Amino acid sequence: MGYAEVIQGLKKGQVKSVYLLYGEEAYFIKQLEQAVITAVLVPEEIDMNLLTLDKDPAINELIALIETVPFMGGKNVIHIRGTALLRPRKNGGNEQGEISDKVEERLFKVISDMPDYTHLILSTTDKVDKRRKLFKLIEKHGATVELVNIKAKDVRGWLTAKLADLNKRMDSDATEYFLGVVSIMPQISLNFLHNELEKAALFTDGKTRISQSDLITIMSSIPEISIFSMIDAVSQKQMGKALQLMGEQLKSGEHPLKLVSLLARQVRLMWQAKEMSKDGYGSREIAERLGLVPFIGEKMLKQSKNFTPEILKEITLALAAADYDLKSGRANKSALEEIIIAMCR
């Protein structure tokens, strides 16, 4: 079962007795936790009927909580964050030996036949073992929902919904800019994007629209933005500007190793864009194949034209060496400076 399917079910009043929410995307996990709680309890019931725990109680205690009848009627919601009940066993356990004792067997029976006055939410960003009997029982009698990191191509839909929640609109060039920022991030965090949009809403308080200049002001300190601007400066042989942008990131506390990693990713994308262009692909096809929004793909292709394949190969090898030397303590920020200077020649 996926995120959208759970949300649609809740809107129709189809609330499962037990949910397992797991995966790397903490933002979606929080959203679903809240959606289930809101679907079961009205605001005035939350203080009395919602129990949130930050770790698993003993199995006997959990069973007792599930079977406890709400004091004032209605329903109970038990929410356990960071559950370890479904972690892979250290010995790589399988179906054999899953039922270790009578207590665990009782839990299996309770999960298989939950009382109609209790809803259980288990959530974790850790890995879960889908072979475990508990996982299979929750999958059969409730819902198991894996929430993976969102892909760049899917952010537009999320952005539209988030702007509606904020009662804001975004200019078309601002939307492309925002999606461009997302597409150059090695890993997308919706929690981070959520916070950036909240800041944009506060920054534009009193206005209904968010402009590109608003976003540039708010997001200028993001390392990926600075790296992309630095590459742009390098591709135009603007050594002073490129070194200035690098210095600003180092002053803000970014480690040279992170800048090397981000720069290496951008150089690889340029190299790939150049090779695809030689094979006859247009900027839109290149963007799609590289998982970038169209205008970033076009810019990446334009930047790549200022470097020969040989230079891009040399830079890639130099960045790999700098990465190794920085990790082993044999280099400092000067290694990155030398690469930028070499790219500007």
Q: What does this protein structure show overall?
A:
- With 345 residues, this protein is of the alpha/beta class.
- The protein folds into three domains: 3-146, Rossmann fold; 152-219, Orthogonal Bundle (Helicase, Ruva Protein, domain 3), CATH 1.10.8; 223-344, Zinc Finger, Delta Prime, domain 3 (Up-down Bundle).
- Helices cover 58% and strands 9% of the residues.
- The strands form two sheets. Strands 2-3-4-1-5 form a five-stranded parallel beta sheet, sandwiched between helices.
- α11 packs across α13 (256-278), α13 packs across α15 (294-304) and α16 packs antiparallel against α17.
- The protein starts with a helix and ends with a helix.
- The relative contact order is 0.09.
CATH class categorisation of the largest domain: Alpha Beta
Number of domains: 3
* Number of alpha- plus pi-helical segments: 17
Widest β-sheet, arrangement of strands? 2-3-4-1-5
Shape field: elongated
Helix content: 55-70%
**Low-pLDDT runs:** 93-99
CATH superfamily of the largest domain: P-loop containing nucleotide triphosphate hydrolases
Protein name: DNA polymerase III subunit delta
Enzyme class: transferase
Pfam families: DNA_pol3_delta, DNA_pol3_delta_C
Organism: Pelosinus fermentans JBW45
